[in-house]
């Protein structure tokens, strides 16, 4: 089944609107003296919800398919494989760190994002935004619209690889952290490739 016809201008508008909403919410929360965690979670949620709402709005006059069709159900075994893939990639990343360290490569520690809090009362909000809402919107944009548009403009393998590179670059991994940063970037790119292949195989963003 060919991907729906998508204009890049609409993808660009969604990115602009999402990041614009993120900046506005960030400034509002900062003005009221909210904590770093609350400010970051609200900003990320604003971006994600803007992407989701914008997608649904644009889909009214296009053949993109609604959210229910994008996230159509798949067999349980596909979900099991999908859940296992990130764990396998994390083990690969850990093994890469271990091998490079044994060969004398200095692996600089990459700190966790400063906006994440270890406070128990912040955990439910972080889980909601970072684990559910954020990734839902990301898959819609990266493995949904962006991948479909790339498939219209280049061979499939190039679309998968280019989309994964964009996904890795936009995830804030510091390439200035030496080998550790590059290893993290490689992990994100491989994760993007695997996610794209799962979507293409299952015809759903749910995996």
Topology diagram in text:
Layout: H1 8-31, H2 36-59, H3 67-70, H4 76-102, H5 123-153, H6 156-169, H7 178-202
Helix pairs in contact: 1-2, 2-5, 4-7, 5-6, 6-7
Structural class given helices, strands, pairing? Answer: mainly alpha
Order of helices and strands: HHHHHHH
What separation lies between the terminal Cα atoms? 18 Å
Number of helical segments with 4 or more residues = 7
Largest sheet descriptor = none
How many β-strands, per DSSP?
0
Uncertain residue segments: none
Q: What would the principal axes of the Cα set say about the shape?
A: globular
Approximate strand percentage: under 5%
Radius of gyration: 18 Å
What keyword list fits this structure?
mainly alpha, 207 residues
Structure description:
The chain is mainly alpha-helical. Helix content is 72%, strand content 0%. The protein has seven helices and no strands. The protein has helices spanning 8-31, 36-59, 67-70, 76-102, 123-153, 156-169, 178-202. Helix 4 runs antiparallel to helix 7. The longest helix has 31 residues, at 123-153. The mean pLDDT is 88.
């Amino acid at each position: 089944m060919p991907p729906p016809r998508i204009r890049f201008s609409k993808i660009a508008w969604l990115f602009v609107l999402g990041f614009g909403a993120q900046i506005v919410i960030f400034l509002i929360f900062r003005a009221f003296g909210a904590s770093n965690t609350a400010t970051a979670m609200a900003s990320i949620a604003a971006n994600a919800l803007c992407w989701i709402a914008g997608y649904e709005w644009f889909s009214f006059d296009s053949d993109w398919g609604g959210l229910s069709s994008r996230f159509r159900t798949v067999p349980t075994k596909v979900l099991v494989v999908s859940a296992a893939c990130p764990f396998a990639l994390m083990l690969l990343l850990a093994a890469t760190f271990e091998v490079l360290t044994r060969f004398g490569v200095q692996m600089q520690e990459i700190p966790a994002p400063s906006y994440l809090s270890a406070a128990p009362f912040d955990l439910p909000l972080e889980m909601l935004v970072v684990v559910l809402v954020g990734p839902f919107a990301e898959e819609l944009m990266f493995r949904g619209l962006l991948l479909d548009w790339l498939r219209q403009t280049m061979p499939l393998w190039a679309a998968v690889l280019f989309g994964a590179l964009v996904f890795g670059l936009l995830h804030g991994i510091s390439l200035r952290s030496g080998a550790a940063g590059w290893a993290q970037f490689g992990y994100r790119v491989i994760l993007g490739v695997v996610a794209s292949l799962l979507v293409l195989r299952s015809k759903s963003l749910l995996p």
